[in-house]
Amino acid sequence: MISKSKFSRVAVAVALSVGISSTALAQVTSSDLNGQIFGPNGNPAPGTVVKVIHVPTGSAKTVVVNSAGSFSLRGLRVGGPYTVEIDSDEYADQTINDIYLELGEPANISRVLEPQGGVENIVVTGSQVSSLAFGQVGPTASFDLETLQEAPAINRDLTDIVRMDPRVYVNEGGSNGIQCVGKSPRFNSLTVDGVRMNDLFGLNSNGYPTERMPFSFDAIQGVSVEIAPFDVIYGGFSACNISAVSKTGTNEVHGTAFYDYGSDSLRGDSLEGDDITLGSYTEKRYGFTVGAPLIKDTLFIFAAYEKLDGANTFDRGAQGSGAINEVNITQAQIDQITAISQNIYGFDPGPVPASLANEDEKLLVKIDWNINDNHRFAFTYNYNDGNNYSQSDGDSDEFEFQGHLYERGAEMQTLTGVLYSDWTDKFSTEIRVSHIDLDNRQNSLYSDGTIGGNDFGEIIVNLDNDPEDKSDNVRVYLGSDDSRQSNDLDYDALSLMFRGHYYFDNGHTATFGYEVDDLNIFNLFVQHSETTIEFDSIDDFQNGANADVDYGYAYSGNLLDRAAEWGYKSHSVYLQDVFYLTDDLQIKAGLRYDWLTTSDRPLENPEFTESYGFANNANLDGISLLQPRVGFNYTLSDSTELRGGVGLFSGGNPNVWMTNNYQNTNVTGGEVSNVYENILASDFVWVNTEEGAPVGPGYSIPGDLDAQMDAGEGRNFEVNYLDPDFDMPSEWKISAGLTHVTDEDYLFNFDVLVSFTKDQAIILKGDLDQVGVNDEGYAIYESNRLSSFKLTNSDETSTSYSVTGTMSKNWDNGISFTGGYSYTDSEDVQPMTSSVAFSNYQFRAFTNPNDQVSSRSDWNIEHRFTADLRYNVELISGLQTTFSAFAVSQSGRPYSFTISDEEVNGIFNFTPFLDSNNVLPMGNERNAEESSWWTKVDIAVRQEIPAFSEDHTARVWFVVDNFTNMLNDDWGVLEEVSFNTATVGNTSPESRQGDASLWEIRVGVNYTF
């Protein structure tokens, strides 16, 4: 028998709290409703009929209470309102109105029926049912529709919302990537209506497969972030799982429309006393949603459309230009390089980049069909196409002309069908089929978008501004970025899921299922296919002297032979039981088993096989992981509950790391290079000039390099290969938490999370053997095999932990507040920030490049304070005004002081892999330093205005991003160290992050009907 102590005040406060609320299961598309029905003496009331009605659509489900007094309903729509009718032949009936369900939340209703004493029906509201939100197990943040509508969300993105949790940091100074408890955004999973929409390949640092959130903001019904869910249905991540579910049509025609606007005139123009010059731009966004019945009570449609006409701004310029970050180059040097490029090389490199127009378009269409009381089907189509313009060489010692920028973009389409079925009162199923198709773009500004279709290669001019101080040197880039000269990516994935739930009479609930994802990838990535030409000075550039030329291509002459085409299937099976061990202790325990299958193998390189004694064609076939999980929730008193669990998780390792092994075999192509005394000489031989282009550098290929490529000769880069003993990376998560509500309804949450990362993926040089230690204490290596990079597992276990506390309170005067603090100490062996093995190996700080040392993560934010404040009031009679503010104060990103390039060359006896400032002074640790704290406040004001109908709502609004910087240009300035390293002796390694530091206003209007 279930104890009446389940009617806890904890659950009431959680149900009413704002922002960070109760448990919300992710990787699901629906909600569940469980219940216990008792007689007046606390005895079970079997045979009682429970009918649950979704009021907006009229759909209903009916279930009979079992001998233990329990019932369970699955596959319910998110949101509400719901009405629950409790029909008893022995006791007075009850009706519960206005119940709202969170995304996937297993809500509980526990009711004691009254004797039939002349009262036929007792009516209560959902807010009076204390157990609705009872039962959190792991650290979770969930955000309802009200939060989405009222938060100061200037970007119309999930990042505006999930950052309210102090454990979740959004990198506003970079890609807006979501970093959970100090982990890389690449280790997250994002699902929308059950479809995994995280970056399945791994190119994007924001974690999305597209440039922005791949679905309309106004289509979202609810969002949840799971840090450590101990339910076996979760997979495909080791950092956090972010889940969203879309809205649905109802029996009433309803919808929204919005328009908002921003421009450079609505943005700050000074930082810390410095006048800032911004490129002129305007941005506008507009869209609509509409939901309607196609057949009343049976068939419904919902659609959402959103369009952005925006701009990318760039914050770097010459000395004295007024740019946010001024590079050590003069306008005279820029003019000189431009003139040489135009007059001698016949190429216009473009201006200094200021702003470039971009766009984004989203469409979501959802059909809901109530087949009958026991079966429901939902179909969702989602489309997104958008682009940005990016810098590829944006360090403080690098300068790019506009022509060196490149377009990032992607077109994505997803299809999802879900069938929810209740076969009996005890057995229900969910079957989901989904397909995602993505066409990625990585095009140079001078490209026509076809493979090998660029008209001009890359030129680098080195400026030796101060021979005695190398830190003042600058590398100037013009032409097509070397990594976008031949770059194409497409992938598609077909997913199938079957999940069942069986509810036993003794109160046990069994969950079981099978899932399979079939992923197919096409990726072409050939650097220098149009050549990269590097000069040591402006004079050498002018004279064509001492030109170092790199050229990459396919030995066959067909670039497509260099492409990686491969795929694999990811399988999962799981089984779980949820039950009450005692009246107050609920246990959730289960097993999940994941395994991979594939028949695709990299091409074997005979030279590698001879050198290593095994082939370079290992694949992922057969790797697997058994993941046990157990969690609990314990009601300590009517105002306090405890929770916790332990479980093993895996996923989020980008497929681009494995793709390197298919692409970089050195069987189908490679790179060749040469240094030429004078490439402008009249007798210099150029070949392969594209039609309509002039013959010469940038437009053509040196004849001797082309001949070497045709002969399969020249300098090949490292073979990339998978360790034949590679295991599936995983992470143990252990958490404990407490929820407490005071007599004044202040809600406190406290969580501790400890994780142990096992078998994490890293890159090592496969050909090196340590042969000694030099006088400074650094390892001495020899290359004894064919040069290679190995994707392997680390032998080190990285330990990370976080401690988080939050407080929430709602007042009757319309004010609500949620505040939180999180301390995080996260570690890893390698940050693995890149898509390329070479860069992953090199761009980190170390004392020994092949050693495995667990150090502070690049993604760690040690201290983070957050506050969400809202106030609803009628300043004008009958028209609501909403004030909202979000504040954050956090410590800075970690970085390392490293030795200069010149000193590095004297320390190690091999330099091709150490051409960056990545070597730590002996005795130092990676990421021992920390950038400056950052504090800012965002605000929003929304005012209702008269609408065309009493049932409609119209609002005008404005959002101020970084209101602190608007008040004082010394405030709200974000300063960080580029690429997490700075040279020893640099007294000012940080640079200002313009997009995050400058205040910005967005104004708009929206209409709801």
Features:
disordered N terminus, 8% helix, 1009 residues, 61 strands, 22-stranded antiparallel beta barrel, 6-stranded mixed sheet, mainly beta
How would you describe what is shown here?
The chain is 8% helix and 48% strand. It has 1009 residues and is mainly beta. A hairpin with a 3-residue loop joins strand 19 (282-295) and strand 20 (299-313). The chain is globular.
Task: Compute the CA-based radius of gyration.
Answer: 30 Å
DSSP helix fraction: under 10%
Report the sheet with the most strands, covering strand number, pairing sense and barrel closure: 22 strands, antiparallel, barrel
Q: What is the residue-mean pLDDT, rounded to a whole number? A: 89
Uncertain segments? 1-26, 130-134
Strand percentage: over 45%
Task: Give the oligomeric state of the chains in this entry, treating copies of one chain as homo and distinct chains as hetero.
Answer: single chain
> What best-fitting shape do the alpha-carbon axes yield?
globular
Q: Which structural class do the helices and strands define?
A: mainly beta
Number of helices: 12
Number of strands: 61
Distance between the termini: 47 Å
Q: How would the blueprint of this fold be written?
A:
Layout (H helix, E strand, L loop, with lengths): L8 H8 L14 E8 L10 E6 L4 E6 L5 E7 L2 E9 L5 E9 L4 E7 L8 E5 L14 E4 L1 H6 L7 H5 L5 E3 L7 E3 L8 E4 L2 E2 L23 E7 L14 E6 L7 E10 L6 E2 L2 E2 L6 E14 L3 E15 L2 E2 L7 E2 L4 H13 L11 E18 L2 E16 L7 E3 L5 E17 L4 E18 L13 E6 L10 E6 L7 E17 L5 E17 L6 E4 L2 H6 L1 E10 L9 E19 L2 E13 L8 H7 L11 E14 L2 E10 L5 H9 L5 E10 L7 E2 L13 E2 H8 L8 E4 L7 E12 L5 E12 L2 E5 L2 E6 L5 E5 L4 E6 L4 E13 L4 E11 L1 E2 L8 H6 L12 E2 L6 E14 L2 E12 L3 E5 L2 H7 L21 E2 L3 E12 L7 E9 L1 H5 L7 E2 L4 E3 L7 E2 L1 H4 L2 E9 L1
Parallel strand pairs: 1-7, 6-8, 12-15, 21-22, 25-29, 28-32, 41-47, 54-59
Antiparallel strand pairs: 1-4, 2-3, 2-5, 5-6, 9-14, 10-11, 12-13, 14-15, 16-19, 16-61, 17-18, 19-20, 20-23, 23-24, 24-26, 26-27, 27-30, 28-29, 30-31, 31-34, 32-33, 33-38, 34-35, 35-36, 36-37, 37-42, 39-40, 42-43, 43-48, 44-47, 45-46, 48-49, 49-52, 50-51, 52-53, 53-56, 54-55, 56-57, 57-61, 58-60
